[in-house]
């Protein structure tokens, strides 16, 4: 191997070394981008989990409140009933005055009855 070949080989190796270095820099940049994106997604994921947990707790609390008492719509019907009006639909009585505020089993079933 003469000096010229040796010099050419060194130049080729130097060029290949620069190419490898450029590829490594590119891979490093991409890896940095991926790590940053991953961190962002982990934070977003944690926030979403916390929000979901809050919503589930709120839903559970609302369900237990409804089970403990009347729902808002049934409370409205109860108020109408207590004001002396029918809230049942037997013989199209809904909204008509209860005579002498006498109790109506059908209205009470609409307000307090079990619903499945």
Automatic annotation (TrEMBL):
Zn(2+) binds at residues 86, 88, 104, 107. GO terms for cellular component: bacterial nucleoid. Residues 10-65 form a coiled coil. Its main location: cytoplasm. Pfam families: YabA (PF06156). Keywords: Coiled coil, Cytoplasm, DNA replication, DNA replication inhibitor, Metal-binding, Zinc. The keyword Transmembrane helix does not apply. It is found in: Cytoplasm, Nucleoid. GO terms for molecular function: zinc ion binding. Binds 1 zinc ion per subunit. The keyword Cytoplasm applies. It comes from the Bacteria. Its cofactor is Zn(2+). GO terms for biological process: DNA replication; negative regulation of DNA replication. HAMAP family: YabA. Belongs to the YabA family. Homotetramer. Interacts with both DnaA and DnaN, acting as a bridge between these two proteins. Involved in control of chromosome replication initiation. Inhibits the cooperative binding of DnaA to the oriC region, thus negatively regulating initiation of chromosome replication. Inhibits the ability of DnaA-ATP to form a helix on DNA; does not disassemble preformed DnaA-DNA helices. Decreases the residence time of DnaA on the chromosome at its binding sites (oriC, replication forks and promoter-binding sites). Tethers DnaA to the replication machinery via the DNA polymerase beta sliding clamp subunit (dnaN). This is Replication initiation control protein YabA.
């Amino acid at each position: 191997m003469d000096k010229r070949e040796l010099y050419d080989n060194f130049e080729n190796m130097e060029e290949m070394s620069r190419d490898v270095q450029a590829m490594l820099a590119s891979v490093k940049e991409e890896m940095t981008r991926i790590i940053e994106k991953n961190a962002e997604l982990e934070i977003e994921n944690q926030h979403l989990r916390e929000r979901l947990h809050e919503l589930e707790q709120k839903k559970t609390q609302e369900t237990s409140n409804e089970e403990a008492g009347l729902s808002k719509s049934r409370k409205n019907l109860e108020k109408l009933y207590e004001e002396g009006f029918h809230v049942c639909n037997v013989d199209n009585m809904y909204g008509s005055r209860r005579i002498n505020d006498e109790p109506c089993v059908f209205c009470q079933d609409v307000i307090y009855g079990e619903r499945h």
